[in-house]
Amino acid sequence: MSDSSVEPRSSSLVGYEYSTKEKLRLFFPSLRQKLLPKRNLLAGPFGGEFGWELMQWQGFVRTRRRCYNETHVLTYPGRDYLYEECRVHYHKIDLKTAGYGYGLLGPAAAHAMATTKAREIGLTNYDLFSPPLLCTRHHRALWNQEFRLFREAPITEEPYDVLLHFRAMRKEGPDQTKNYSPELADALVRLCHERGLRVGCIGHPAYSYCPEFCHDHRSTELRHTVAAISSARLISGENSGPMHLANLCGKPTVIWAQDQWRIDYSLRWNPFRVPIYVATNATSQPDPALVCQTIGHALQELRVSSEGFTRPLFTAPAQPIAPY
């Protein structure tokens, strides 16, 4: 993402900081769209974190698309799976420098990128639904979210006991703690094997690590990742986007993070109310033995509650996520 795409109040690389005037101004196009939608919709550009796209943005877009003849979505490559019945287009925002939450794009930059894309594809008579319209919890309260359960045919006949995600991305900004070291990842996989567990790895191949002797199901396409998750009894990793994806697939998770507020995101962002087990809230580099022990405990408990993994471990329909 070039410097010209980013507006001034973003030097922290956390997320765009809206002025009071911008917050007030953005309320009126939201209200107009809700009451008097045009013929078509352009949703985006979404240029933030994967977890926020999963648990916030795509749920709003799914609700909005029902009001339009055509819905176009502008997002990262490989995210088409999230936007059924939509036409998906890609931007070139670099995920490593995109910032956190909804990202660094302010209203002017988002509007410029979206209108440029609209001209390229010949889109007319459209509403622009962009992340700036969700800039506060009061703005988000105007809209409803709809979540669908992501499920694909399993890719293996024998289910995995656990699929692991080892984040390995150097993201610019204040948070450099979330990557689990390769040495600890190797040790965790070894301990899982010693317990007789069948394990594999998921994630994006450019942003995650897969230890040796571990089935590698990392992919740039979300459909393949969902199929892998559908082949497992449990998903485990640092509290990040793939853990949220697992919950949207109706799969329980074992998570860890440094600080309870990070864990709280998963506990609140759980529309299908799947079981979530916490290995620790004290570090992003937990002892592999502790994680393996938590995985073993979770599998034992889930086996009983699901009658040998024959009953669903999620609750439908999806429950709303509060617009905090």
Structure summary:
By secondary structure, this protein is α/β, with parallel strands linked by helices.
Would you kindly provide a written description of the structure presented here, covering whatever features stand out?
It is built from nine helices and eleven strands. The chain is an alpha/beta fold. Strands 5, 6, 7, 8, 9, 10 and 11 form a seven-stranded mixed sheet that branches. A four-stranded parallel sheet has the order 3-2-1-4, covered by helices on one side. Helix 2 (50-64) crosses helix 7 and helix 5 (182-194) packs across helix 9 (288-305).
The rounded Rg comes to 20 Å
Helix content: 25-40%
> How many separate helices?
9
Quote the distance from N terminus to C terminus. 29 Å
Could you spell the SSE succession in H and E letters?
A: HEHEEHEHEHEEEHEHEHEH
Uncertain residue segments: 1-12
Structural class given helices, strands, pairing?
alpha/beta
Total strands: the figure is 11
**% residues in beta strands:** 5-15%
The global form is globular
Q: What's the overall average pLDDT, rounded?
A: 92
Q: Mind describing the biggest β-sheet?
A: 7 strands, mixed
